[in-house]
Each structure stands twice: as structure tokens, then as C-alpha cells.
TrEMBL record:
Chief place where the protein resides: membrane
Keywords linked to the UniProt accession: Membrane, Transmembrane, Transmembrane helix
Keyword DNA damage applies: no
Record-annotated membrane-spanning stretches: 12-38, 50-71, 92-113, 119-142, 154-172, 192-212, 233-258, 278-300, 320-336, 342-364, 376-395
Domain of life: Bacteria
Membrane topology type: Multi-pass membrane protein
Localization of this protein: Membrane
MF GO annotations: cadmium ion transmembrane transporter activity; manganese ion transmembrane transporter activity
Protein name: Transmembrane transport protein
Biological source species: Thermanaerovibrio acidaminovorans (strain ATCC 49978 / DSM 6589 / Su883) (Selenomonas acidaminovorans)
GO biological process: iron ion transmembrane transport
GO terms for cellular component: plasma membrane
Length: 406
């Protein structure tokens, strides 16, 4: 095959690959951008003011190091996180799979709640009907014949919509952009616990695996695809960073004017104070978009951790994903948001990143997993540093479990 025919095939191949990688990037990014992401950003902006920009920049650099390690090694091996973990230490993959599934289910209850609240803000729909409607939208994606493509397009569309709406609010609140940029590079205050909290919320738990497992499902694997995989992993963090920084600027414009955010719902009050009723409605759209895409990401990734360990899950993946969403919705509709379960899931979630990252780093030097691939030494070093930091945070978070039994 030569000339135009070869170029046509190559162009179609790269176009399909590029579409999958962009979809995987948005899936990972929108999985990170959930209700907690919005609240976290509002609270830290009010606390640190312009200096929060440095925390965002620092967390982004750390996120890139973590994401590159995981995406590159899984992408080269063509194996999902649980399978790599089981190769490194038999049984570890089962622990990670159940931890991700448990954490994903509990956090999905919060995501369903966020989606319901978003519809309530926009249209006044009561919470339970709003939760059912939102879950129906998510389930519809997984009923499509081309499930992966539908998921990619959905997360891309809502991701772009969220960025556009937050940009509008940022323009309305008129934040001190010059001061924010200065403090991003030369901060007056540095809070490393805030940085690590942002890292945990961006690449912790199942989140970084959402995109990595998506590219594996699409067959974008192997050393010959390494450049594309690396680019896709950085793009995912870039999308999250853009959303975080625009949200920071939008809220900064409110807090520097001397207005106090409502502690009951900091991000909603920021949008209301900054852009009036239209800003409040926009917040509802952003909240719904953030929550429903997180429902999609959490459900898909949680089941992807189980599919290679249990034949029935692999054979009936769609049904398991739909059952996962229905269970989350049923628990929210009947019980509400179980606070103790959320605390427990948060503590377990804190152990997932250090354990999964450690297993991936150890796999990077196993020829039976990655073949002749040589993982960059700098990425390896940065990866082990993050294992230590996130491991410390994970052990600290275990103390929260003790509070459940007091």
C-alpha cells in the first residue's frame, strides 16, 4: 500500500486514535471534576486567596508525574491496574479492585446527589426525581451499541460546557488576574497539605485509571503508541487544570471583594454573589455536568477493575455498570448520603493511589509485564516520592475509620 492509500489509512488510524485519547482525557478529567472538586476549590480559594494559584500549579506538576507513570506503564503492558498488581504481588489486584469498587459505589452516591442538586438549582425538580432522571441519562450511554464512543462524546461535550460557563462567571467577577498569576509563581503562603489534598482529588482512587483503562479497552497500547499515550495523559491533567484555575479565578473575584461564601454551599454562593441569578443557574448546570460525568466515570472504572478478575463481569459488563448506577441511585433515594460510609470510603480511597502506583512502578522493570520497555528514571524517582507522600496521607486517613466506632 503506497501513496494516497497509505496516507488515508494512516490518517484514519491516527484520527481514531486521537479521538479515543481525547475521549479518555476528558473521561479522566470529568471523573476528577465532581461535586467535591467544586467545593474543595471554593473552600481553598477563600482560605488562601491568590496564593491558591501556587497550590494548583504544584498539584498539576505532581499530577502529571503520577499520571505519566500509570498511563505509560499500563499502556505499554496492555494490562489494567488490577492485573498488573496481581502480577507484582498475587492478591494485591483483588484488594485494589474491591477497594475501588467499594469506594466508587459510595462516592457515586455523592455524585448522584450532586446531579440531583444541580437539576434542583436549574429547574426546581425535587432531589429524588432529579437523581432518577440523571441516572437514566448515564444509563442511556451504556445502552448504546458503541458504548465507549458515546461515553467519550458525552464527557467531551459536558467538559467543554463546564469550562465555558465557569469562564463566563470568571469574566463577571473580574478577579485580580495579575496578582493571581504573580502568586501562582511566587506565593506569599505555601500550604503543602492543600497541594496533596488536590493531588488526591485529581489522581487519587480510581480517577487516574479511568482514562488509562479506557485506552486499553480501545486497544491504544504498546510501545509504538507511547508518544500518543503520554500526550493523552498530560492532556487529561491539562483539562482538569484549566477547569480548576478558571474556577479559582471566578471565586477569587468574589472573595477579594470582601464577600463571604456560604459555608453550607461555598461554590453555589460564589456563583450567586459573583454573577447573580444567572450565575446561580449556571452553577446548577456546572454541578449537574460535573456530577453526572463523575457517575459515568466512577461506574465505568469501578467495573473495569472487576472485569478481568471475574468472568461474569467481563461477559456482562454493561449490565454490571447499569446495576452499579442503579444501586447508587437507590441508596441515595432511600437512605440519602450515608456520612459514615463516605468517611470509610474516603479512608480506604486514600490507600488506593500509593498501593496502585507502587505496583505499577515495580512492574515497570518486569520484562514479563512491559517487555523491553525502559521506563524513564526521573519518572520512576518522582513516582516513588509520590508513593511516600500519598502513603503517609493514606495512613493518616485511616484514623478517620476509628472515628466511626467512637
Amino acid at each position: 500500500m503506497r501513496g494516497k492509500e497509505a496516507n488515508k489509512v494512516r490518517g484514519g488510524y491516527l484520527g481514531l486514535s486521537g479521538s479515543v485519547l481525547l475521549g479518555a482525557a476528558f473521561l479522566m478529567a470529568t471523573s476528577a471534576i465532581g461535586p467535591g472538586f467544586l467545593t474543595q476549590t471554593a473552600v481553598f480559594t477563600e482560605k488562601l486567596k491568590s496564593a491558591f494559584g501556587f497550590a494548583i500549579l504544584s498539584s498539576v506538576l505532581i499530577d502529571i508525574a503520577v499520571q505519566l507513570n500509570i498511563w505509560r506503564i499500563l499502556g505499554v503492558s496492555g494490562m489494567r491496574g488490577q492485573d498488573v498488581a496481581n502480577r507484582v504481588l498475587p492478591g494485591l489486584g483483588y484488594f485494589l479492585a474491591f477497594a475501588v469498587a467499594l469506594g466508587g459505589l459510595v462516592f457515586n452516591i455523592g455524585n448522584v446527589a450532586g446531579a440531583a442538586m444541580g437539576i434542583n438549582v436549574v429547574a426546581g425538580v425535587p432531589l429524588v426525581p432529579g437523581a432518577i432522571l440523571s441516572s437514566t441519562v448515564a444509563i442511556a450511554l451504556f445502552l448504546r451499541k458503541e458504548m465507549g464512543k458515546a461515553m467519550d462524546n458525552f464527557t467531551k461535550a459536558l467538559g467543554i460546557l463546564m469550562i465555558a460557563l465557569v469562564l463566563f462567571v470568571a469574566l463577571k467577577t473580574q478577579p485580580p488576574v495579575g496578582l493571581a498569576l504573580k502568586e501562582t509563581l511566587l506565593p506569599s503562603t505555601v500550604d503543602w497539605m492543600t497541594v496533596l489534598t488536590l493531588v488526591g482529588g485529581t489522581v487519587g482512587g480510581y480517577i487516574t485509571f479511568a482514562g488509562a483503562h479506557r485506552i486499553i479497552d480501545a486497544g491504544v497500547t504498546g510501545t509504538n503508541r507511547l508518544a500518543e499515550i503520554s500526550r493523552g495523559s498530560v492532556n487529561a491533567i491539562g483539562i482538569t487544570a484549566i477547569m480548576r484555575y478558571l474556577l479559582f479565578l471566578a471565586i477569587l473575584g468574589v472573595v477579594v471583594s470582601g464577600k463571604a461564601l456560604d459555608p453550607e454551599n461555598p461554590p453555589a454562593s460564589a456563583f450567586l454573589l459573583g454573577a447573580g441569578q444567572i450565575g446561580y443557574r449556571f452553577f446548577g448546570v456546572v454541578l449537574w455536568s460535573a456530577a453526572v460525568t463523575s457517575v459515568v466515570g466512577a461506574s465505568y472504572t469501578s467495573i473495569s477493575f472487576l472485569k478481568t478478575l471475574f468472568r461474569s463481569v467481563d461477559t456482562h459488563q454493561r449490565r454490571w455498570i447499569i446495576a452499579f448506577i442503579l444501586t447508587s441511585t437507590a441508596i441515595f433515594s432511600t437512605v440519602g448520603k450515608p456520612v459514615k460510609l463516605l468517611i470509610f470510603a474516603g479512608a480506604v480511597n486514600g490507600l488506593i493511589l500509593p498501593l496502585s502506583l507502587l505496583s505499577v512502578l515495580l512492574a515497570a522493570h518486569r520484562k514479563d509485564i512491559v517487555g523491553d520497555y525502559e521506563h524513564p528514571k526521573l519518572l520512576t524517582l518522582l513516582g516513588y516520592v509520590m508513593v511516600a507522600f500519598t502513603g503517609w496521607m493514606g495512613v493518616t486517613s485511616l484514623s478517620k475509620i476509628a472515628e466511626l466506632f467512637k
